[in-house]
Each structure stands twice: as structure tokens, then as C-alpha cells.
Model the fold of this input.
Amino acid sequence: MATITPDKTLDASGLNCPLPVLKTKKAIEELQSGQVLEVITTDPGAKADIPAFCNRTGHQLLETVEEGGKIIFYIRKK
Amino acid sequence: MATERLAIIATKGTLDMAYPPLILASTAASLGVETAVFFTFYGLNIIHKKRMHELKIAPIGNPAMPMAFPPSMQNAITNAISSIFPGPPQIMGIIPGMTDLMSYMMKKTIKEHGVADIPDLLEACKEADVKLIPCQMTMELFGYKYEDLIDGLEPPAGAATFMNYVLEAEKPMIIFV
Done:
């Protein structure tokens, strides 16, 4: 279980490439710097794509949790 | 002036070939790269108000096409067909209506897999500030007017305008689809 308390949650379950990344980008724009976004996906491709998005945009990927077919990311806005 | 600029050239007007330029463009823009898509020749159909809803995929001449039944249509019979034929036999492609049937099945499969449709991806591109540029010359060639195309496009441009846009960047990148 993650111990991080997110400021906002994005449920991108059931969506496939490129939608999880596009929705993450939009959701993170609505946060303040330092706030944490939780992204829930079921797309196996997101496992590599969300870290790539963070690496490219400079947002910090705090933690990735996999449970019951879901991949959950915690991202701190830069 | 942008340090990085990605330009994607969309030349194909089939359902399958409409996806790569829009997926790459919307994603690149979300990653913070200035991105433009230049729609030329049949690629113009992707941004044509009416034709964008009628994009098709043809089994004929497309031997890589899998026999992909939508999840809701998978049963003992369709599974048996899939196990015998890796894809629609080429000869079936000449049967009238086969292209429409395959296009319908592909759209259904796309929807049931949670993959975005073309109008949604175009909206995503616009939201991410991707520049969508129609090719002036092919518009005239095909008789497409600017008002036949979707809203939110850049003005029609020629090759030189497009090349200049790309090469102004310190790191220009081009993808040809």
C-alpha cells in the first residue's frame, strides 16, 4: 500500500495509449507546484510511458504501485 | 524560438494510418515538444469534417491485417475462424462490402479496447497545442475548401512554409507517415 496522500486522483482505467499520458498531462496542469497526482491505469504500456513522461517533463515520479491489474503512479508536480 | 520542434507528415487516409501521426503528435506535445502535423494527399481526409468519420481499412493489399474480432463478437465460431485464418484471406477483399465490414469491425474493436477514436485524438492534439497544417496544393488538387476541413487548423501552407517552420528550431525532427 502506498503511504502517499495525493492531492488529486486521475482514474485512467480502461484507457489505452496515448490517453493515460494525455490525461496525466492535463490533470497535472491543474495542480500547484509540489502537489501530488495519483494516476490509476490498467494499460500495461503506461508502465513505461508514465515514467518517460515524468523524465521528459521534469515532474517527479514518487512511487509506482501494482495491485490487482492496476498500475498506480504518484507524481509530484515540479 | 523553440529548441525542439517535431514535424509529422501525414500522407495516408486509411483508418489505421490516421492513428500514428495523431498519437505521436498529441503525446509529443504533452511531453513539452512543439509539434506540428502537415496533412497532405490522402492525409487531408483525417481533418476533413465529413470524411474523417468515413475512414476505412481495406483487407485487400494488407496481408498483415489480423483476424481481430471485437471482444463482444468472440465466440466458438469466431474463435474457430481466427484459429484457421491468421487474417482475412486476400481474395475476400474483392467481395463488395468487405472493406466496409472490416472497417466496422476494426472500429468496434478499437472502441471495445478503450483506444481513442480519430475525432477524440484530433481534439487531444488541439488541446495540447499541436499545429495542424493542411497542404494548400493537395487541397486544390482534391477540391477541398478550407471550410470543408475541421475547425482549429492553421492556414493552408506549402512545402516551403512547412520546411521553414521545422528548420527554424535548433533541433528539428521530422516523422513521415
Summary: The first strand of chain A starts at residue 8 and ends at 12. Residues 31 and 77 of chain A are 7 Å apart (CA to CA).
